[in-house]
Amino acid sequence: MIFGSKFFRKNLHRYSIIPQGSVILESFFRLGKIKIRRTAALAPMAGVTDRAFRTLCKEQGASLLTGEMASSTALVLGDQKTAQYLQVDDPLRPMGVQLFGHDPQIVERSIQKVLPFAPDFIDLNMGCPAPKVTGPGAGSALMKDPKKAEEMVRLAVKASPIPVTVKMRLGWEEKSGALDFAKRMADAGAAMLCVHGRTRQEMYSGRADWESIAKIKAAVSVPVVGNGDITSAKEALARYKETGVDLVAVGRGARSNPFLFSRIEEYFTTGKLSAPANGSDRADLLLRLYHLMCEDRPAWLAMRELRKFAAWFLSGMVGAPKMRAKAHTLETEDDLSFFLDTLRSMQLSAEFLKEEC
């Protein structure tokens, strides 16, 4: 039975340095005292990057992790459910936690709630476009009020003994203010900026604007992480070369293809790419994710939360549309066993192979 099988992990992230003959010679950059490999980070995504998925991506080689965003207001009020987003496991380091809020003083007070969890850094979310976050004035809504955002960073930096970073977009509606906003955040004490290459108005439509990310990188002295539309190892390398960013972050591309992290490291290390993960590889990884989920929640709940990943893991497979309907109805381990057996027999599409290779 598949539930008793051993899971084989490549663990390409075991290398402590990238050889000098590699594509990228500067193998690391520093965030305070933290040494971070210049491969790819996992971008935090609400409802996606929980402990189980973070672990999966770390095993595939993600060089930097950040927890799901936690409400600073809820933390100050002592909400225990929110505190779960602050869990930092040593095997997942370097790892930070992310806070969101609209009140600089509340964010400052929430720092003390975060520190007992011993993150490597604290990230302030000024990029989330979700209406429930921006409505009260948090997330990317802060880009409309640079003065308040600047105060938030200054107070957080003053209260924190560890680096404070900022996640931002290119603006609310227009990109014209992004450069000034980034400079103000860095001047206020932000130790690193992670920039998603879209405005809030764009949400996730169109293509990420990496030219604007490059301008921000050139204008500030702190490390800059670029984020947006990284779906292949070759694309990741191209973004490094085009923009000079210190790190690239993978978000939605990782949901359907966590193997992307190991492929980026393989390509940066050897300059070559092996054959992409096939249906069998994906089935093994999905089963691994299910087992990780079961460590934190009842099996029935893990199965329900696995459904979206099962559907995402079908991306680039021939026959994916028909199988997605089955993914969204998974209830039992027998259902999962049948789904995985079918996934193992599926073939990669020609379009996916062209992009990957």
Task: Report the biggest beta sheet as strand number plus sense, adding barrel if it closes.
Answer: 8 strands, parallel
Strand content: 5-15%
Oligomer: single chain
Q: Which strand order do you get reading across the main beta sheet? A: 3-10-9-8-7-6-5-4
* N-C termini distance: 33 Å
Give the C-level CATH assignment of the largest domain: Alpha Beta
Number of domains: 2
- As a percent range, the share of helical residues equals 40-55%
Backbone shape: globular
Compressed to H and E, one letter per element, the order equals EEEHEHHEHEHHEHEHEHEHHHHHHH
Beta-strand segment tally: 10
CATH superfamily of the largest domain, called what?
Aldolase class I
The class by helix and strand makeup works out as alpha/beta
DSSP summary: helix tally:
16
Uncertain spans, ≥5 residues at pLDDT below 50?
1-25
The assigned CATH architecture of the largest domain is Alpha-Beta Barrel
CATH topology of the largest domain: TIM Barrel
Give the overall pLDDT as a whole number: 92
Using only C-alpha atoms, the radius of gyration works out to 20 Å
Outline of this structure?
This protein has 357 residues and is α/β, with parallel strands linked by helices. It has helices spanning 51-60, 72-76, 80-83, 104-114, 131-134, 146-159, 178-187, 210-219, 233-243, 252-256, 260-270, 279-294, 299-312, 320-327, 333-345, 350-356; strands at residues 28-31, 34-37, 41-42, 65-71, 95-100, 121-126, 164-168, 193-196, 224-227, 247-250. An 8-stranded parallel β-sheet has the order 3-10-9-8-7-6-5-4. Strands 1-2 form a two-stranded antiparallel ribbon.
